[in-house]
Amino acid sequence: MSEAIPLSTNEQEILRKHLAHHFDTPQQQFESGKLGMWLFLATELLLFSGLFCAYAVYRALHPDIFRFAAQWLDWTSGLINTLVLLSSGFTMAWGIRLAQMGKKKGLAVCLILTMTGGLTFLAIHGYEYFDKYRERLLWGTLYNPDLGGNGKPVLQEASAAPLVGGSQPARTGDWPLLNQLGQAGYIVSHSDIAPAADGPSGIVQSAAAEPATLPPVQPYNVQIFFGIYFIMTGLHSFHVIVGVGLMTWLLIRTLRNDFGPTYYAPVDYVGLYWGIVDMIWMFLFPLLYLIH
Amino acid sequence: MSDHEHDVQLQPAQSHLVPLRMLFIVWVVLCALAILNAVLANMNLSGAGVLVAMIIASTMAVIAGLYFMHLRYDSLFNVVVMLLTLIFITLFITFSLTDTANYRSDLIPGEAPAMVQAQQAHAEQATPASKSANSAVGQ
């Protein structure tokens, strides 16, 4: 704690106005608010961790699908978005510094720059989504890309694809859902994983080395990758939209002269939120755009 | 708010002022690491690629947390909250992966007939094509 600084009556008024009755000092209120914010950010990370877990399990089981789908994800636009978001993180941190020093004009400029960063990120991402929509690279049954031409792998004929239970009708009863999907023309279950050895010991043969090139035919269930891609980036983009909204609110309050060296807590808290949005993207970028 | 006596002198909350120079350096380092990540991914490190990418991403997250989010100068309790969250996430994901690996349907023969059949059909389909390609080369 620093030495007591003599404050003007006006500054005392501001401090009194913002100090809630259940706190003793502005310092205590500020620290409590920060702790509350960090707890909220912890729940945000836990929310995303569920999606990261789904990603990890699915990628561990089906690396072939990820290698195949990676051809449609443009790492340059991902990198540009990363740099845009990092820059907006920098302007946000700068804005907090200016708020602490009581430089209101600088704070307003930094908030506008941060907002611009968020909006640029959303624009680039929106274009990516539009592109995926045009190519029908979507989730579930909406996944239906045209795989002919352009040097992209050619899709197997659906009728030629192995359907569930084909040669073992006795077995089909055990798999009603899979069987239904198979009859609906869905291509069910295939993976890169080597099948179990037939020997009595049941020892599994070591998996063959991963092919360096794309698999010659499309692996099954690529739509699940795009489901994961859209839910992860979509939830993140939603957070960016909320962040831009918060920046707007901060900007209005800044222009209204609400913030100064004696009171800037909301700027600090929104800065923490923007930091976690940045942080989550730092992981999404390599996981979704840098698959090889 | 009116509970506070007016004769008590309040002091504004103090928090560390991160130097602009430091913020700028952090920004440059973060951008450099992001570019490094993309470059390394394009160099095709195969199996180690994911691990390297995750190490770089974690380094970036730690740097951003320490400086952009002031954790280095902040109350230790906030750091503890973050660390506990990360420990929980690590447990969550590693245990899920361990579990998935142990119950992989094709490790137990006959457990997933659909998958085995699909793989056999897949292999059969791939072989005639490669055979005909070979014979074409032979002629």
Task: Summarize this entry quickly.
The complex is a heterodimer of chains A (292) and B (139). By secondary structure, chain A is mainly alpha-helical.
Question: Could you please describe the fold and organization of this structure?
Answer:
- The complex is a heterodimer of chains A (292) and B (139).
- Chain A has two domains: 26-144 and 221-289, Four Helix Bundle (Hemerythrin (Met), subunit A) (Up-down Bundle); 153-189 and 212-217, no CATH class.
- Helices cover 62% and strands 0% of the residues of chain A.
- Chain A is built from nine helices and no strands.
- In chain A, helix 2 (26-61) packs parallel to helix 9 and helix 4 runs antiparallel to helix 5.
- The longest helix of chain A is centred in the first third of the chain and has 36 residues, at 26-61.
- Chain A is elongated.
- Chain A starts with 8 loop residues before the first helix and ends with a helix.
- The model of chain A is unreliable at 149-176 and 198-215 (pLDDT under 50).
- By secondary structure, chain B is mostly helical.
- In chain B, helix 1 runs antiparallel to helix 2 (47-68).
- Classes of the chains: A mainly alpha (292), B mainly alpha (139).
- Chains A and B meet through helix 1, helix 2, helix 4 and helix 9 of A and helix 1, helix 2, helix 3 and helix 4 of B.
Distance between the termini of chain A: 51 Å
Shape of chain B: elongated
The tally of helices of chain B reads: 4
| Total DSSP E strands of chain A | 0
The helix content of chain A is: 55-70%
CATH homology superfamily of the largest domain in chain A: Cytochrome c oxidase, subunit III, four-helix bundle
Q: How far is the first residue's CA from the last residue's CA of chain B?
A: 93 Å
What fraction, in percent, of the residue positions of chain B are helical? Answer: over 70%
